[in-house]
Every structure is written in C-alpha cells, then in structure tokens.
Amino acid sequence: MAEQEKEATLPSKENFSEWYNDMLQIAEIMDVRYPVKGSYVWYPFGFSIRRNVYDIIRGLLDKDHQETMFPLLIPENEFMKEAEHIKGFEEEVYWVLNGGTTPLDVKLALRPTSETAIYPMYRLWVRSHADLPLKLYQIVNTFRYETKHTRPLIRLREITSFKEAHTVHATWDEAASQVDEAIRLYIEFYKRLAIPVLPSKRPSWDKFPGADYTIAVDSLMPDGKTLQVGTAHHLGDNFAKTFDIKYEDVDGEQVYAHQTCYGVSERCIATLLSTHGDDKGLVLPPEIAPTQVVIIPIIFKEPEAVLNACNDVKAELEAAGVRVTIDDSDKRPGSKYYKWEMKGVPLRIEIGPRDLKNEAAMLARRDTGEKEQVPLASIKDEVLSRFEIIQAALLEKATAELNERIFDCSTVDDVKEKVQDGIALVPWCGEEKCGLDLDEQAGAGILGIPTDMDEDGTYKCPICNKETRTRVYVARTY
Ligand SMILES: Nc1ncnc2c1ncn2[C@@H]1O[C@H](COS(=O)(=O)NC(=O)[C@@H](N)CS)[C@@H](O)[C@H]1O
Ligand SMILES: [Zn+2]
User: Model's pTM, two decimal places?
Assistant: First the structure.
C-alpha cells in the first residue's frame, strides 16, 4: 500500500465516529471508496486480522460442527415459502432478474441469510434420527438492502464475513440447548478477542423472522451505543414444516425436526477495533495481531552488531511461533514507533549498542505504553508471558468499562439520561406497549432480558407502574 506520505494523525477517540472512519483508512483496515453503497474493500492488513479472528470462531465451531458452503442464489419459489421469514426480508432482499440479456424464468434472490437455500437440501439429507443432530456452518457473503445508514464493518449491504450455523435436532428441547450452546460459544469467542458481551433474550417484536425466540449478544461501543454482535435463534419446527424436514424416529414415526441458526458478521471486527483502540490507533490482542512483535534496531554506531542481534531475536521468536518483523527501514525511530503503534502491534523490542553491552533489550507494551529492559537471554519467555498479560489486561479493562456503564434505572427520566452514556437496567412488565412507549419516551429500545442474571427483587414498570420481577437492558443501538 502507498506509504502515508505525511503521518496522518487520528482525531481523539472521544470523537468516536470520526476516529472510527479515519482509523479504518489510516490503519489500512477497509477502503470505503468502492463505488457501491454499503460495499467496502478489505485492505490486506485488515483482511489478515479478519483471518486470525475467523480462525478462532472456526476452531470453536469445528469441535462439533462441520463447515460447508451453499449457493448464493436462491430461487424465488424456495425463498417465498416461509411467510414470516419473507415478511422479515422482503424489503431487504436483492433479486437477479437476467442472465446476460436473457430474462430468467425464475427470479433468483441473493441470500440475505441462507435458511431458504439450505433447508431444501436438509429435507433431502435428514431421513432418520441417526442423522441428528446435524450441525453445519458456512462463512460467506450475504446481501441485505439496508435502508438505514450503512457503515463499514457495522451495517453493510454486502456482508462479507457472515458466519451462519444451521442445526437440526430431534426435539424442541435439544434445539433449545443448542441455542444456549451457541451463546456460550459466542461469549467464549468474544472473550478471546478480549471483548465482554451481554447476552439477552430479545423481546418478541425483535426476534428473527420465523423464529420462536432469539437470544443475542451485544457489545458496548465507545459512544455509548450497543452493537448486536451475534444472534442465536430457536426456529422451532416452523421451517421444518415449511420445508418438510422430517426424520424417522425410533418407533418408525415421521417427525418434524426442530432447528436453530446462529450468526456473527464482521461486526466482531468493528467491536474489536473500537473497544481496544486509542488515540494512537489500533491496540490488538496478541492472538489476532497480524504482527505480534516489531523489532526496531537503534543504529547510530556498530550497525552490524545491532542488526545481528535483531536477527537472532527474530529467529528465536519465529521458532516459537511468534509473528515478528524487523523494521530496518531508514525512517527515524519516532516515525517507526508511530507506524507500528497505529497498526496495534502488541509489543515493540528496541535494541541499540547500549543494550548489546548490557546483553538486554527494551520491551514496550502497546496497550499500556509501559517499557521495560529485559535480558536478551530470556527474551522469548518475556515476550510470550507478556502476550498473556496483555490479553488479560485488555479483557479486564474492557469489562470494567462495560460494568461501570450499566446503570440501574427506575424512572423514564433516569433511563433517558443514562442511555446517553451506556446501558440502562430497567424494570419491565412484559407488555409490548410499555416497551415501545419506553423506547419513544427515552429514545432507547429494549435490548432484551439478561440471560445470565438471577433476579430476586420486585420492581415497578416505569411506564404502567405494574409490579414486575423482570428487568431488561435498554440502550441506544447501532
Ligand atoms: N447489515 C448488516 N451488516 C453487518 N452485520 C449484520 C448486518 N445485519 C445483521 N448483521 C449481523 O449478523 C448477525 C446475524 O444476522 S441475523 O439476521 O440476526 N440472524 C440471521 O441471519 C440468522 N440466519 C442466523 S445466521 C446479527 O446478529 C448481526 O450481528
Ligand atoms: Zn408496563
């Protein structure tokens, strides 16, 4: 990529929206200049972060799922089969009408999500209870004609990194357990990105079209708005009845299957970069950093000896599986620090003549800026142990920031004030009308009922004053 002529500086992260847009370009994550609204281009550096992040979720899914790939194009007759599902997507689905100059006899939908591509095949594949549970996933691009404000990594018309899992089970309860398993997997996935997420059961008016219920995980973005970064849906036997997915049970009866589906998109990258980044640019957890260590030779005399030492350290770290580079360009050290800090490299090693004399090197952490001299003899262990320290520190910091921005609220005015800064925990009687009134009066909607919180109090719904034992997360959302 063309080196930045002059060192572009980021605005303060206080001005999150501007920081986010500039970060994507300066840190070479996404080029937003592609001439189709809602479609963006991965720079290779951004794409290497995506590869490392998706390797983690593949590793978690591959324990008991299999990866595959279904066609992008869905014939109209299949897409239009599940009424509620269409209702949910009819304003968002893209259609292909022609092949070359020939009008197609059957319109083809670009998958907005793949239930209607996959389930006609599941009907052919699922015959007996011995075929269950069936757990497949794919990581593909999907297309949604979003009419709300599009945003790179956050709200796309072409979702480039849509991981969707689709499972088939013998009973409703087994599918319900799979939904819980999916949420546990997402919480673990985000923990590996050092991102704390809040699991909650979406209110009925906000569940996935065609689902019995939806559980989502939300993260908190620096501007106090939440981002839905994963969802898991219990589909009941709704789609099985529509697509005739049945299995022969042990008694030889034909039984409709029960299903789930659960997905994440490149929003996982959006929350990763936004949560940990700072005014100098990216701060990457070591496990997903394309470059984990950059070695900067400090050369003003004895260049040979310094460069030899740098190459020795690089070789030792590479042998330990560390992704390491030496920046021996002729730039001045300051502009090297700027570049690699912008790219979020977790650790910087500085080696100069004085270090050689002390048989030591300077180690600088990107997340805290802390610098420490360490003996060259133990540099590998010093680096590896700091990876774990950095990972824990990033998660601890993000978790503390989240927890201090969840506010117990009992009145609408309270909610209105607190959602400017984060998430309100609000009593709710369960009536949809109260939920929608709250949204209107407080300018923030019900995210859902926390699934990891034991409630033992009684409260009053702030709208109708009815007694209730339920509290919900309320927040401004992307
Ligand atoms: N326009 C979009 N841009 C980026 N990510 C999106 C967009 N729409 C949805 N997502 C992400 O994709 C996840 C799954 O999408 S979904 O509609 O909730 N669920 C499904 O499509 C189900 N078939 C499970 S894969 C959402 O939780 C959200 O994180
Ligand atoms: Zn109420």
Answer: 0.97
